[in-house]
Amino acid sequence: MDESETMAEPEDDARTWRDDLAAIEAAREVMKIGEFDLFRRAWRAWFACEADEKRIEAVFVAYLFHREVPVWVRHFCRRVLAEDSVVRPALVASAPAEPVAARRVAALAVVATVAFLFVAALAGNSSTSCAGAPAGGVEDLGRIVASDAGLPPC
């Protein structure tokens, strides 16, 4: 086997870098953390200890400027994304009915109640009103609200 067979093609390197970058970004989004913190957590998961700041910084700088993604970061990102692909559908399947629908029903009930009260005030039928209450509809309702006397005693 000659040297050219063991060397990675530039196209392969670019594809690997894009894949690594996409995995890091997706894992970072799932975890809602920054890239540096992702590297720190990947170190902790791989080596089972905390890394000192200078070591993580050196690895992170190599990632930023030289496109070097350590195997333990790659592995960590894949694990996070695999767990997310299992957990997220389960959460969606077990989620209660969409709360927006409940809010729509509540809003419709409020609108219907206001409409009913408005129609009832407009009707102002004297046979259904109590003694001493005005039967003139909206005009009398406006006078009652504007006066300090308050509502009739019924």
Provide the descriptors you would attach to this structure in a database record.
154 residues; disordered N terminus; mainly alpha
How would you sum up this structure, described in words?
By secondary structure, this protein is mainly alpha-helical. The chain has two domains: 92 residues, no CATH class; 48 residues, no CATH class. The protein is rod-shaped, with a radius of gyration of 34 Å. The N terminus is likely disordered.
Strand tally: 0
Portion in beta strands = under 5%
What would you call the shape? rod-shaped
* Biggest beta sheet attributes: none
Oligomeric assembly: single chain
Low-confidence stretches: 1-9, 91-95
How many structural domains can be distinguished in the coordinates?
2
Our count of helices gives 7
Topology, pairings included?
Elements (H helix, E strand, L loop, with lengths): L2 H4 L3 H22 L3 H13 L5 H14 L4 H24 L4 H25 L14 H9 L8
Helix pairs in contact: 2-5, 3-4, 3-5
